[in-house]
Design brief:
With about 650 residues, the chain is an alpha+beta fold. It contains 16 helices and 29 strands.
Amino acid sequence: MSDQYMVNKRVSTLVTIFCCSFYLTACGGSSNDGQTNGRAELPPAVITESVGTLEPIMTFGNIDLFGDSEFITNGSYGFALTTNDNSQITAVNWQQLSGPELIVLATNSQTIGFDALQAGNYTLQADVTTNTGIQQITHQFAVQQSDLTVANLRLDHTVTERGKVSLRVDSFNNNISTAAIIWKQVAGPAVLELQTEENRAFFIAPAVESDQIVQIETTVTFADGSTSIDKSIVTINDTQIIDTAYFPNSNIITSDDVFSFKADSAYKTAIESCIYTNSLNSTCTFGTLPLIGQQFNDPTIADILDRTLVSHDWMGQRFTQYLEQSAAGPDMLKLLRGVTAVVISYDVRPSFYWAATGAIYLDARNFWVIPEERDTLNEVPDFRSGFGSDLQFRVLWRYIKDNAPYMPGANFSSTARDTRTFDALEADISWLMYHELGHANDFFPHDVWADLSNSDDPLSFFRNNGTNSDLMINSFPLNSAQMKGLAQVSFAGETANATQKTYVASDIEAFFTPDIASSYYSYLNEREDFATLFERFMMQYRLNASADIGIVNTQNNANFLVTWGQRDRFNHSTIQERTRFTVEKILPDLGDIAALQAELPTSTQLRSNVSWFDNVDLRENVQGQNAIQVPYRLETTSIIDETNRHIGKPTLRN
């Protein structure tokens, strides 16, 4: 065993680099020091004027009920609750008492949205708790059979003031992609920065002094000349936001609807107060919320769920399904020992690990299966999507399994109401969790759990002890100054300089290939380098999924012809030693890592001047495919741009 493997001291050489005292790693994206995260500043707490008044459809004592009053089949509808006496709603429980089954996935929220697919008489009940008592409301409505073309504006829901909001319009019985769509706000305090993109709208909720209802309307004119109007209500929740607290200080407004997935968890109070709130401004000690590994050497799924926060019950249910059924599930149980909690929420975007709390925060987009689950997600574009737009190259990545795309695979259309298979769910969750848990076990590896005291806390321990990624980068440094500089442009949002703007794919090949990085993302910082190495090893070892990297030009390259590419670069002979160091530090339970490496595929070159899509199957009998046939595949196959770890289509300029 080489000397660098014998290093036990984990004190960072950069203990003081984080001026805001904690470290956030935003994965599938970038990492930063917790200052602004490359994001736009939070909107100021300015109360806006109302653009119109929305009257409640019914009143029950001090509770007002807002929502639709006419219903036809295939329509999307919703109801919302607020108080009329300045009392605060602290808990809600919706249930359906009669009628054909509705899929309602936010039963703990002040606002629910649903599709009415069948005619009939319906009854809903809500138990509403305020600081003045409990009020039970019951509401009946009838859905009429109809063959009309209907626009479906989704989804009525509750948001936190000053938070980011998205809505999407589609249709069960007409093509939304060829329709003309007009958006406008018709009621409630004026929203901020209303923007539209195809069939979606995004805005920032204004600050409010009490819970308020916003109503957005779409007028959709389909290609056949038919027109449909639909409206959605968004409840803006008045909440306590401390701008200097951890999350608001990093330009993140958290959802007030996040709750402990297990209502009877012994850690319910701790995880609900220590992990994801707009007023969290100090780190909880391990005496209040220990790492899972401090308590369990072999935690069960139930132990993990006791530490899980969700914004919707379905997220915890899919997480449970994944842990129970995935081949990666046993790995995750071991890796989760390095966290205090797991957050899965509709408004987490991108996923990240945070040393201030010792928790991982997972984007719920990775967990949906049925379209109704997808409807509850926030689709506001990733703040990093435009990073590196001045550069003349892109670095793409993906996973391949059995000579076919694994992650991402085929696109799942929101307008077609697609359902995902478990295989797609497993692929989407596994790479993300291996990555985030790689971070968690970098900051809190197995050999420190037993020595943590109740008075220790995640932030202080990290600042005093550093990470294994510090040791890795010292022993196995990356040498390309050009790639390090470009990574700051692509991942941290820095402005490209004149020289960087001239680089094309062949330049990137010359900078990248002599070095020992497994990915372009590795150059952002040692944390991402460390976690990405681990992620790619585990995806191959456990799921037989190979990681591809490809460098392409962005000009005059509509077919995504690859200048240089490689499969399973993590197992290249020049990178194997640093990969082994990483895996041994994160998951020593695997045993002899060198022996495991020897059984895995070594790196394989992609074919140059062949389309990224025609480089999926590298067997000899398919190497004659013509890349010119590729463009139509862009409509059905996702690509991931390594410059922002973001699912979507890179901008290619012809």
